[in-house]
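Supplementary Text 2. Reproducibility record for the structural model of the 134-residue chain.

All settings were left at their defaults, and a single model was retained for analysis rather than an ensemble. We include the record here because the model underlies the residue-level annotations in Supplementary Table 4.
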Amino acid sequence: MSWYMRLDNIKIKTWKDLVDAFLKQYKFNLEIAHDRTILMAMEKENQEYVRAYMQRWRDKATYVQPPLIDTKMVMLFANTFQSPYYKHLIGSSAQHFHELVRIAERIEQAMKRGKIEGSAMDSRTMMRDDSEYG
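Retained model, structure tokens:
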């Protein structure tokens, strides 16, 4: 909006002029488009909840070209986790992204309850209660 308001209305006489000005201003976004390597390099932060990480990862995934099919998203997302998540996720039979997220959330809950050891995030580092994400 601020970019639009700063436009010189003398130079913008047609819709084509507006399109050209927009592309000139924001063309860099096309040149730095997200690709799969950006997704593969992402990691869940120690105190980050699975749901928050999934949303952050999925936000970036929406910009990847060509768009990812669900099975590819499952593989890429699972591979971004560290142990003990990784060992449990890689052994799962999740075929769809939402299934993998549910499994990761179950792992997170088991870690909070001390049923899975070796986590980077234990119950003392969790800052919110279980009810936040349903």
